[in-house]
Amino acid sequence: MDIETRGIVIIGGGPAGLAAAISAKESGAEDVLLIERDRILGGILNQCIHDGFGLHTFGSSLSGPEYAQRFIDRFLELGIDVMEEAIVLSLDKDRILSVSSRKGYQVIHADAVILAMGCRERTRGAISIPGTRPSGIYTAGAAQNLINLENIMVGKKVCILGSGDIGLIMARRMTLEGAHVEAVFELLPYSSGLPRNIQQCLNDYKIPLFLSTTVTNIHGKDRLEGISVAQVGQDRIPIPETERYVACDTLLLSVGLIPENDLSRETGVEMDNTTSGAVVDDSFMTNIPGIFACGNVLHVHDLVDWVSLEATQAGTFAASYVSARERKRTSASIPVIAGEGIRYTLPQKISGERDFTLSMRAISPWRDRFIVLEGNGTKEIKRKKMMRLHPAEMIRIDIKAKEISSFSTLEVRVE
Q1: Cα–Cα–Cα angle for 130, 134, 140, nearest 5°?
Q2: Contact call for residues 291 and 113 (beta carbons, < 8 A)
Q3: Smallest Cα–Cα separation from 293: which of 7, 37, 16?
Q4: Are the C-beta atoms of residues 170 and 137 closer than 8 Å to each other?
Q5: How far apart are CA 327 and CA 318, in angstroms?
Q6: Percent residues over pLDDT 90 in the chain
Q7: Which CATH class is domain 331-415?
Q8: 364 and 343 in contact (C-beta within 8 Å)?
Q9: N or C, which end of the chain is more exposed by having fewer CB within 10 Å?
């Protein structure tokens, strides 16, 4: 079979893929191809009809489709090639892709590949809730898709497990559609969603949030009839004497997102156990030369604006990589260590030759703390006062190359 040669191939047509494709084209890459498995571009944004997108990128509060359309318009204006309703079946370390589409089976060799496949939701099976298996149990994103895109109402009396942002937004959405949301139950002692969504989606609608509480059983044969919930201790194990029954016909699960990296693992991309995404350097390149990663496939973001910004940078670096003058890989030999109070950092290693933004998340909620960046375990490089830290909110700190080029290791911590 003939192998088609392409310049930059981007896998995924959501906000990350669109921004990366636009950036690569605008940075001088003449041959850019985007592959999207859906029939339209935009990804998850198409079902996010609430506003709040684009405050950093455009200085406006846009709905998900409005935000996506701005990128789609620029994408089309640049004349970037796209394959819709196409699935990448395989990708190897030599950047050879097997693709299935309406046109048939194709094999493509790319000079560079940008992974932008997004993320997926954890399901009931992933968290092992005991009980029967009736209808009426959905992930929050699946319910959002049915209501917003298919005009199908999923239930009338609703409980939500998990206080992730999609679950919080769906609590409001279900209420606006006439359902009664009984409560949101969260295993952790704090919400795993953005504070603004707690206020706008729960407090404004008087929907109760029960922390340190989880679902212990599912009841119902054909249709969900109710759930058992119980408080949990510090070990997150349910306390039997606190168990109670809550009647409902619908349970939405908002229990975390997982970067969609099956393809990345098969390719041999080095993975980070904490983020469940790739290990990348300060150019967003993985351990495999010419393969880059960005967006929610790299680490789950709190704001789509940061997805677009990172993807824009990844597209620029990919364009530089495929150009003859930049084809040689820069050595990224300085590790960035997540110290006390920090769950992970990104990038995980840097070259020390360029300015970059260090992204990270705190392990727990705190107030009036400092983020401290230290070199070689002894020299304080930067100290930033934070009025509030929350695991749901990404921390971003801009670092200049001249600040860190003389160090062999970097560590960031909370003080």
Answers
A1: 80
A2: yes
A3: 16
A4: no
A5: 10
A6: 93
A7: mainly beta
A8: no
A9: N
